From TrEMBL:
Gene it is expressed from: prpC_2
Keywords in alphabetical order: Acyltransferase, Transferase
Similarity comment text for this entry: Belongs to the citrate synthase family.
Keyword Cell cycle: no
GO biological process, one term: tricarboxylic acid cycle
Protein name as annotated: 2-methylcitrate synthase
Enzyme Commission code: 2.3.3.5
Gene Ontology terms, MF aspect: 2-methylcitrate synthase activity
Pfam families to which the protein is assigned, alphabetical: Citrate_synt
Gene3D superfamilies on file: Citrate Synthase, domain 1
Top-level division of the source organism's lineage: Bacteria
SUPFAM superfamilies named among the record's database cross-references: Citrate synthase (SSF48256)
InterPro entries cross-referenced by the UniProt entry: Citrate_synth-like_lrg_a-sub, Citrate_synthase, Citrate_synthase_sf
Amino acid sequence: MTDTTILQNNTHVIKPKKSVALSGVPAGNTALCTVGKSGNDLHYRGYDILDLAEHCEFEEVAHLLIHGKLPTRDELNAYKSKLKALRGLPANVRTVLEALPAASHPMDVMRTGVSALGCTLPEKEGHTVSGARDIADKLLASLSSILLLLVSLQPQRRTYSAGNRR
């Protein structure tokens, strides 16, 4: 056992030690977010995450992260329409998901759905920024459909509990 073990034999908790070895060392440069710029804060593309959570819709934040800016009202309406049009799952992806064992963990179903989607709709050669954004939009739209399919199959599936995860 190491000091990073969170739970040992379901009897007691061992808290991980806080590593200070890399405190203050940049892990990389990104335009997406900053962490701890002025304490324990988080910013997405310059916007405080608490402000985004309080004042923005999900699709507005998705647009900000994927497309680089908060949308105008017209852009938001167009983006919602685009995502709605991208929600459909190909038949073979549905078939793969429907064939999974009833006791499958929901995250395993989501991961498998994404993998099946990637095999069905492979990325095109020669990545472009626009193409990457289209992939992100399709994935974002498809995840809700994968989740909806999972929920619709629940009557036929065994109820999941944390205890039956392998």
